[in-house]
């Protein structure tokens, strides 16, 4: 690994941290129906806009010692933690897909090599998928239902990647994604993975509805259906089906167990069920991330 390879790989980690800064906004504002663009980043205590040099991922929080520059109010450690996790997801995904051989890939891209383009699609798809699982898990951890629309960019990216690959077959084997994008394995993954995720969502909806008879919370989250459907497309058929089955067992068992253990149909019970859902999603996302190092 030469100096250029190192610089480019570090750039991927920095890019992930920058993306994580935006994800903090998504996690906080999206469930509340607030704009992701306006107003800009500001202190929730004093309302002052955050200066650009105080908005550097992770570094600014460390420099300010976790406090607002204007009012000295504490800034949650969650913000740099989200940025650090996002950095790890994007950087490690780029490393595993490319094997850190960025000089070779740059030369291939300059020569319009199709395998190099496919490699970039893989980085975008896997990083986008893992980041989406992370965002949905964080929203649920806050006790909020995750808007289904959060999966839109991830699904669109995956469909686009497969659409391009169906016309643009790679010239060499790559470690991830199906070798025949629209073949039998593609449809098996899509149908079985989505069905398993739908089953997990149905079990969770049943528990939420029973815990929430007063209808104080909307029960409209379909994140397991989307997560397992996309996840099954990204992994080879057996792996995708195994992960979907684990998602069904984990989410279904947790949802039904929570319902049976609850003596009262309370709003707090619904909030706790969402938090448990976020924890299970996070574990499932870690399992998917770990497979990057094995496949």
Automatic annotation (TrEMBL):
Q: Name one GO molecular function term.
A: aspartic-type endopeptidase activity
Record's keyword annotation contains Nuclease: no
> What's an example GO BP annotation here?
signal peptide processing
Coiled coil residues, start to end = none
Keywords tagged on the record: Membrane, Methyltransferase, Transferase, Transmembrane, Transmembrane helix
Q: Which domain of life is it from?
A: Bacteria
InterPro entries xref list = Prepilin_pept_A24_N, Prepilin_peptidase/N-MTase
The name this protein goes by in its record: Leader peptidase (Prepilin peptidase) / N-methyltransferase
Domain Prepilin peptidase A24 N-terminal: from-to ranges: 14-96
A Pfam family this chain is assigned to: A24_N_bact
Transmembrane residue ranges: 6-27, 119-138, 150-170, 182-200, 233-257, 278-294
Q: Is Cytoplasm given among the entry's keywords?
A: no
GO cellular component terms attached to this protein's record: plasma membrane
């Amino acid at each position: 690994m030469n100096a250029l390879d190192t610089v480019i790989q570090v750039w991927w980690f920095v890019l992930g941290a920058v993306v994580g800064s935006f994800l903090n906004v998504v996690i906080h504002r999206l469930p509340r129906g607030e704009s992701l663009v306006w107003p800009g980043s500001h202190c929730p205590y004093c309302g002052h806009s955050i200066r650009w040099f105080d908005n550097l991922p992770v570094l600014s929080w460390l420099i300010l010692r976790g406090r607002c520059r204007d009012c000295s109010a504490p800034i949650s450690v969650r913000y740099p933690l989200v940025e650090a996790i996002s950095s790890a997801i994007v950087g490690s995904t780029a490393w595993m897909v490319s094997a850190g051989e960025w000089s070779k890939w740059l030369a291939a891209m300059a020569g319009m090599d199709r395998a190099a383009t496919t490699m970039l699609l893989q980085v975008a798809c896997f990083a986008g998928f893992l980041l989406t699982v992370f965002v949905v898990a964080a929203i649920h951890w806050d006790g909020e239902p995750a808007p289904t629309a959060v999966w839109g960019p991830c699904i669109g990216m995956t469909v686009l990647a497969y659409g391009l690959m169906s016309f643009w077959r790679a010239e060499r084997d790559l470690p991830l994604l199906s070798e025949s994008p629209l073949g039998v394995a593609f449809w098996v993954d899509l149908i079985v993975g989505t069905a398993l995720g739908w089953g997990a969502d149905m079990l969770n909806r049943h528990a939420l509805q029973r815990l929430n008879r007063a209808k104080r919370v909307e029960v409209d989250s379909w994140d397991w259906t989307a997560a397992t459907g996309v996840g099954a497309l990204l992994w080879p058929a057996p792996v995708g089906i195994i992960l979907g089955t684990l998602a069904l067992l984990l989410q279904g068992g947790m949802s039904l167990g929570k319902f049976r253990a609850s003596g009262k149909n309370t709003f707090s019970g619904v909030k706790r069920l969402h938090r448990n859902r976020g924890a299970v999603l996070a574990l499932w996302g870690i399992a998917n991330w770990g497979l990057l190092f094995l496949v």
